[in-house]
Amino acid sequence: MELSTLWFILIAILWIGYLVLEGFDFGVGMLLKYLPRDEQERRVALNTIGPHWDGNEVWLLTAGGATFAAFPEWYATMFSGMYIPLFLILVMLILRISALEWRPKVSDLAWRNRWDTIHVFSAWVPAVLWGVAFANLVQGMDIEVVERDGTVVPPEAVEGALGTASHQLTGGFFSLLTPFTLLGGVVTASLFLTSGAIFLALKTDGELRRRAGDLAARLSIVSAAVTAVFALWGQFAHARSALALIPLVVAALCLVAVVSTTRQRKEGWSFLLNSVAIAAAVAWIFMALHPYVMPSRIDDAYSLSIVQASSTPYTLRVMTIVALTIVPVVIAYQAYTYWVFRRRLSTRQIPTDPAGLTLSELR
């Protein structure tokens, strides 16, 4: 296997790790003002993700860094073409971090409610935008090869012009919004909502667990239905490989099983199956892309391939050695944190008087 193909697979694995783990973080945040009924239940919900959310975001940083190093032209084309949605995601992630960190600093319900509202908003926006972004990769974007003076290279002359020209999104921001890509946003939002509800049912006890389980059972039907429509549409209209049907079938079987297990209140199996379904869906996205990293809707000649986007073989060799050395350690440490914080939480473990400064102390 060529190193460029290996790193294409490794980046897919990094995105799987991020979207599976951050997915339930987003889901809990999206449900924060709806599912918990009072301050103590909200604190229980936040405590379920408290030990994990920052570690989960490391997968995003690693995926972005690996893309930059292994496929610099992919990174440049994607981040310039999707500048506005990716910038919005970054702002939302900063706001979500602020909400998680600043909420407990002041012992005032109004203060905490405001941060909870910000938290909910900053969880919903990335949950939708990630789906829109990945759906654009599957569908293809309005990409052309453009010279430095702004001249568009004819499709038949692309191969000879890549030394001085670059791949660029020429369709503008609104070319990213199509029925297919908007449905992609609905898919990721519904999958993350289901994941968050299942995670709360898995990690809490009492009334909050019961309500989370009831909601997960309903959401699982919605997420299975919209994912099926999106995946079948993408496979038959946009996928470039018949092999992409394999993860598609895996995702479908897992989502059907999630519908069954959530009704049986088997939270552990539900969470595992939903996570495998998200992982299979991300695998399908990357298999549907191959052999490109950014397909063009205008002409296949403008599509950015894995080979065209990759770094030099020496760079990829060094990256491979570093990744094989460090990544297993990071995975082992993160798995250990999940084992340490594996117990269920309930309102009985939450103090009646929350910590934090009073408004008088702030003044």
Mind summarizing the main beta sheet?
2 strands, antiparallel
H/E element string? Answer: HHHHHHEHEHHHHEEHHH
- List the total number of helices: 14
Helix content: over 70%
Summarize model confidence as the mean pLDDT.
Answer: 91
Q: Bin the strand percentage.
A: under 5%
Shape: globular
Number of domains: 1
Q: Order of strands side by side in the largest beta sheet?
A: 1-2
Q: Give the low-pLDDT segments.
A: none
Oligomer: single chain
Structural class: mainly alpha
Calculate the terminal CA-CA distance, rounded to whole Å: 64 Å
Number of strands: 4
Radius of gyration: 22 Å
In short:
By secondary structure, the protein is mainly alpha-helical. The chain has 14 helices and 4 strands. The protein has a two-stranded antiparallel ribbon with strand order 1-2. It has a two-stranded antiparallel ribbon with strand order 3-4.
Structural account:
The chain has helices spanning 3-30, 39-49, 53-70, 72-81, 83-102, 109-139, 158-161, 179-203, 207-237, 245-263, 267-289, 306-309, 313-340, 359-362; strands spanning 143-146, 166-169, 292-294, 304-305. By secondary structure, it is mostly helical. The chain has one domain. Strands 1-2 form a two-stranded antiparallel sheet. A two-stranded antiparallel ribbon has the order 3-4. The radius of gyration is 22 Å and the shape is globular. The mean pLDDT is 91.
Question: What labels would you give this structure?
Answer:
single chain, 363 residues, mainly alpha, 14 helices
